[in-house]
Amino acid sequence: MNLQEELCHLLEISSAASDVVTLDQSRVGRLSRMDAMQQQQMSQASRAAYRVRLQAVERALKLFESGDYGYCEDCGESIDPRRLEIKPESVYCLGCQLACEDSLKPM
Fold it and tell me: Is the whole-model pTM more than 0.70?
């Protein structure tokens, strides 16, 4: 199973877990309802993260098809193959990625 297929599979699995919580209020205690709602929120957050990663993988596949895969979108230098092996959807070299993240940090 490739990365794209794996992410699609995880999206399908997490879909059921993020459905609206429907509990019989008379049979389930308040803490159980709170636990169920917390679990639902966590599942929805995981699903959102899977979607973001899937979009990044699809973007990387388009870059691969166009022959631009493996080059930093910021500086144009080659992305270290070890970085691509760990995170194949990377579009920035490590230096540019760190600079981007640093610029987003609050002062």
Answer: no
